[in-house]
Amino acid sequence: MEPRVRPLPPEEWDAFIKANPYNVFATIARHPKLYRAWLGFGGVLLDGTLPARDRELAILRTAHHSRSAYEWAHHARLGREAGLTELEIDSVRHPDALWPVEDRLVLQVADDLHYGGDLTDATWAALCDRYDEAGRIELVMLVAHYRMLALVLRTLRVAIEE
Fold first, then answer.
1. Looking at the whole model, is its pTM more than 0.85?
2. What's the CATH code, domain 52-151?
3. Other CB atoms within 10 Å distance of the CB of residue 122
């Protein structure tokens, strides 16, 4: 599918895009003010308080629910770097997969937010047992952000890099 918004050509890339030559950045950079603010926000989520494994499980489940091939492709790689196995990455797509309780909670957060737009009281109580207040906020913001980004990627028709 042809992109609705073409990425910036390489001669217009800033230092960040040169170091991270992905269409998501080169496309959103067409709106410089929004791009700079979004990079800061997204950077905090990618380098936050959550363990990398938890972060990538939440993003992958959100990419699956959102049917975001772009997010899936990039975060499957990041998930492997965070220690997820190929079987675990594939199993994110299957709600009946057997997961340890810690992983199941992260996936449940993404499921609750996808299906209900909120967390059940049981999911919230489990989050309170596992994460501090900042971690709870961060996990909810992470899932919400990647849901929003999936909509942007799909609507703008951002192509996965070859």
1. yes
2. 1.20.1290.10
3. 10
